[in-house]
Amino acid sequence: MRRFLVAGNWKMNTTKESGAQLAQALASEVPSENPAVEVLVCPPFPYLTTIGDIVTGSGVGYGAQNCYHEAPGAFTGETATEMLTDIGCRSVILGHSERRHVLKETDADINLKVKKALEAGLQVILCVGELQSERESDQTEAVLNTQMTGGLAGVDGAAFGQIVIAYEPVWAIGTGLTASPEQAEAAHLYLRNWLKDQYSAEIADATRILYGGSVKPDNAKELLSQENVDGALVGGASLKAELFIPIIQAAVELSAE
Ligand code: 13P
């Protein structure tokens, strides 16, 4: 049985104070002895330590939204995986669509980061997803195949204990458009079969595949009920405790069923 992961990607949002208040609200809501659902927040880099200190001891983990693939050194503006583990950060989001499409990261760039983060012992949340035009031209599976093949090139099956896949259709991110549960399930099933073909049935069965794209309290339960949806990567709704907590709650309720 795969354990739900509900992760909040704060993107380039919050202040130190508003982030701290949000983290406090979540930490008091998610007890450390709540193994049913894994909960993670990914604040902006400048606030990672502050937020990390607040959630430490609760059931909320903290992760980064990016990292660089080189060891510490002369790479102005970048963040090393060594720095993330140094501050107790245990996860990193890689290949997010905003980094692919706004910052022009390629699958090759993402692959270097994936391998470095895995080496550092971080949990990697590898994001994949198609553009609206790609969906409309029936390219969804081809795009997912390219992104999975590129992002995971050279990654050994033994690393999969540290890998989570996030399916985030780009057209559903921050738009209020959500993939229907059927669309999400179809893409997740494709990804699970991809893992089975490229790795093994055991890896496919154990690897969590999150859905991301306008997840809200009113659609969370239906999305999370899909057989191959193992959690949510939440953007906008993760910035308000009153929206994020009901999404966590939906996962907790489904785990108890
Ligand atoms: P929204 O939930 O705001 O659509 O963002 C999704 C996302 O990009 C999470 O990584």
Automatic annotation (TrEMBL):
GO terms for cellular component: cytosol. CDD domains: TIM. Keywords: Cytoplasm, Gluconeogenesis, Glycolysis, Isomerase. Pathway: Carbohydrate biosynthesis; gluconeogenesis; Carbohydrate degradation; glycolysis; D-glyceraldehyde 3-phosphate from glycerone phosphate: step 1/1. One of its GO terms (biological process) is glycolytic process. It is found in: Cytoplasm. It comes from Gimesia algae. The keyword Cytoplasm applies. This is Triosephosphate isomerase. The active site is at H96 (electrophile), E168 (proton acceptor). Homodimer. Belongs to the triosephosphate isomerase family. Pfam families: TIM. The keyword Isomerase applies. Involved in the gluconeogenesis. Catalyzes stereospecifically the conversion of dihydroxyacetone phosphate (DHAP) to D-glyceraldehyde-3-phosphate (G3P). It catalyses: D-glyceraldehyde 3-phosphate = dihydroxyacetone phosphate.
